[in-house]
């Protein structure tokens, strides 16, 4: 046995490196669903085990010698045909760094040898014209503590492979994290178990130095366990031959830095062609083009497999933590013989147009047969969502003799949802390959013959059809539906499902492994006489059944056909146990979905949305906004025209025909279509656009489309008067455009990403519109306060914000920044904005801000809160704080605000709003959060008037308001509640502050509370149909608070580039804290220069 370290190695249900007889050369073994066990004179390699044998040249040769005919494996994708198999590495293998041996059945191997040859200059050197490559000594460093290079920021490699850039040009670490994780954090890098880093080396004098956070050095360097926070390793000859030193995490580690002294470093030539390894993940071949509806939404070309694969590649590679949507129009997406097309990214939705006509198909060679080798789709991501499509594995089953395993979906992910998905195959059709996973099926149709629903985890099948196909082409033979391998609590639960049978007979299930569990609750049996006498197969494959149960199975007429008792003697080998399989109604209730999944409610995530109305108005079709919709798909005569964002509720038509519109749920699944036949197309009387105004449509009949309440007292809010238009596409552009006192109308286009709250100071006379589908987002969850929040407006006046979506990274109690903060700002109108998932407050107001008008805004939390923040609260979904401290006397007589037609939606816990000092009018607002602790908070010296609002959820009705003026010396407050739905009229106070009556200050007529739910839920949020003026107006002169280095005028135009400088003229990559000089180039050739102060 050579090397001796092989003795006793047993890898099963995991993965690890295995050393060779050459120092530093290791084989990587993946046995998550297989087994690698060294015996006395060979190694047992079971099916679904993968060996990655390192290669570095196309001249390298791998030789595998098997024991006595047990060569059931493929190497480099080719099946072994004899005891000795020789394989020469391909360029693809070299690019990956390994040749893969995949076991298709139990094999016994005597030896594996790789001869790593020097391929010579013809294949291993880089060809350059007119020069000779020179080398020098240089040090490459990965400084995780200081995030250097800066491209490390935000880098996460999890469930896949990737490269980690260094400070030295062209030098990267290759990270293998299929079952691990590497993630750059604020001042270190998280390095989880089962993650491997390949650090490049050039000579045996090269030294690799690894530094960890104190005590977190749970890794091997070059096969040797680290014993201190700083580990130095000199490259061996074998490692130089391989080209790298391996750092392998054996437990959770945190790295401060890695460096390598390279004695023969060759700087990359700028004229050299890039290898495949240097292609960006975002590259798309022209043959596989798709349409990007938005940053995370891709529409595939109908019936084009290459287009689908290109979109999937883009979604897999996305660094966005948000959901990525892929839409497949009706058509067949033929993957050929390709298997295991992988979903590796998290939060990916693949949505078809229809279950019957959207088909993803592959047809594996029979020689490739196997449960782990044939899948049409291989899911490795978290929170994958599939809807309205068919997965078809077209392996030639009836002519494959005993080799018929052909998987449609092999799921190694977690929290997968399949809604209206059909799976067409025969054996092992659906394979739940994560034994601790949770999976949900609703309205699906799964076809098969033998063990066609098999594997582990807790899987809930809700109202699905199980179609039992003929066992053989002749129709002879018996079939088995389920084969659970249960290591979790519930196993397979079939609830209200229907069995359709075409076989001679069938069994409900047989035991595979673990503690097998399956339950059939309220099942409809299409052919009840075809079920075998024992109903379940008594003999297990490897173990006996643990809990195989059935409750109230009926025939197609609804008559109960399951027996009152059915005791089965389950056995496997010499083990046996007799068990009752018929359970009582009380026991059946234990299998309720709430018990199976706990807090996860996938049925809500799969719920379908439907339009209430669809109508024609001249040359457009229009529909009402659907609450919760993430987008709308528009079809003409059954063919997709486009997909539009949730804020759009109309579409211009140019021809007659039948138009259909479908609303999608937050996961992208489209509900039932609402259709309209258009027989003629005329002019629209409601459409308009001019150079002096912005077109806005889709408003409620109660929408004044103007500031109301406190925004009209003692002054007015006019913003820019819709003059001097400019379009912005970056966060820096937005802040730059908002600066100064000149009148300017700013249109936000696309997704503007923030990595900390940016400040607009001293601005005046600005109107900011969010165009449909635009969003301001800070997506990164962090404990660093200055990296949280989105926008602060301070010391400003006469500002309008309309139709803007703000998205934070999730509530986290660290005293972080808000999505929007107002400080010492007056006459501000915030209208039709959507505030989501702020770290601290969705929208907070303090420091003597006054005359504030907030209308038709929506506040909500779509993400679960983060626990463990420094503030002590594990659920900080506290939406809006008006007044930051009882002791801030500057707020006396200020913070006067009108909230009209606003919606505190799902997830809002508290502060809806919580008020200090201000006279605040809350009129015709909607409270519907099911998790609300209280809605309106009456804190010190608050003067609140709640009028004709609707409290619709049970929690909101339980505590519509709460007193927070309780600290000694700070107990004065008053509140009036009048004419509301779900909250009693009341007038209450402490102290002698006069009750605030809005009608004494301004006129604002409230409509009945009974209409609030319908009106506000249909129109609140970023629901306006905004369009920018078609004509271009000239920008006004600079304001007195902004210094112009080069005072250039810019017509209303799109920003094409922005350059940032420090105060002393040094060029920067982005806005930095302090004073910045921002030079902006516009599409019309003009340039502006401004000073921008960042908090």
Automatic annotation (TrEMBL):
Gene3D superfamilies assigned: Single-stranded right-handed beta-helix, Pectin lyase-like
Record-linked SUPFAM superfamilies: Pectin lyase-like
Keyword Lyase: yes
Domain Pectate lyase: 723-957
Any single biological process term in GO: polysaccharide catabolic process
Organism: Prevotella lacticifex
Name the UniProt record assigns to this protein: Pectate lyase domain-containing protein
PANTHER family in alphabetical order: PECTATE LYASE 18-RELATED, PECTATE LYASE 21-RELATED
Top-level division of the source organism's lineage: Bacteria
InterPro entries according to UniProt: Pec_lyase, Pectin_lyas_fold, Pectin_lyase_fold/virulence, Pectinesterase_cat, PEL
Coiled-coil stretches: none
